Amino acid sequence: MTALRMLWMGLVLLGLLGFPQTLAQGEGHVSVQPNFQQGKFLGPWYVVALASNSTWFRDKRTGMFMCKSVLAPSTDGGSLNLTSIFLRRNQCETKIMILQPGKVPGQFNYRSPHSGNTQAISVVETNYNEYALLLSTGTKGMGQPFRMTSLYSRTQTIKDELKKKFTTFSHDYGLTEEDIVFLPQPDKCIK
């Protein structure tokens, strides 16, 4: 369970992994947010939608809820603290992750202290004040590759056009309708 929670948090929380300048997308490539401005990206976000090709995600997706994540500079000056509050087993839990800068602005690396696996997360697109689309890749368990797309919102409710944008974004990475979940708001923890 701890490994699953770490993977869930790792994926949910800004797709936490470093990438090269562009990321493979099937036969094509996708770039990180041009001229990424980390200062504008800091602060609170709600994780409102996820999609993944991971078996554990497909098994657990019906029990997942929206979570609140806050990005802040860490005291070491180079990394970011990602603090997430989420509902799990009818209790509020808090998880803090340290995101290391990747090769280019908008890319981050996260190393799980439990599994030792590294995840790469890239902010693919954001307008900073409304939404962000993230792509996470890495391995889980016995080295099984996974990818996850995430939709972050500054508010708990999103417009239909953002839902469509996220669905298209997820499809672009080979994820299907069955892989996508728009997370319901919990009755506690993020209010």
TrEMBL record:
Entries under InterPro entries matching the protein:
Calycin, Lipocalin, Lipocalin_CS, Lipocln_cytosolic_FA-bd_dom
Q: Which SUPFAM superfamilies match?
A: Lipocalins
Q: Family membership, please give it.
A: Belongs to the calycin superfamily. Lipocalin family.
| Lipocalin/cytosolic fatty-acid binding domain ranges (all copies) | 43-185
Signal peptide, first to last residue: 1-24
Q: Which UniProt keywords apply?
A: Cytoplasm, Disulfide bond, Endoplasmic reticulum, Fatty acid biosynthesis, Fatty acid metabolism, Glycoprotein, Golgi apparatus, Isomerase, Lipid biosynthesis, Lipid metabolism, Mast cell degranulation, Membrane, Nucleus, Prostaglandin biosynthesis, Prostaglandin metabolism, Secreted, Signal, Transport
Q: Which reaction does it catalyse?
A: prostaglandin H2 = prostaglandin D2
| Top-tier EC class | isomerase
List the protein's name. Prostaglandin-H2 D-isomerase
Q: What GO molecular-function term can you cite, just one?
A: fatty acid binding
What Enzyme Commission number does this protein have? 5.3.99.2
What the entry lists under Pfam families is as follows: Lipocalin
What's the subunit arrangement here?
Answer: Monomer.
Assigned GO CC terms = extracellular space; Golgi apparatus; nuclear membrane; perinuclear region of cytoplasm; rough endoplasmic reticulum
Q: Which BP terms from GO are recorded?
A: cyclooxygenase pathway; gene expression; mast cell degranulation; negative regulation of male germ cell proliferation; regulation of circadian sleep/wake cycle, sleep
Q: Where in the cell is it found?
A: Cytoplasm, Perinuclear region; Golgi apparatus; Nucleus membrane; Rough endoplasmic reticulum
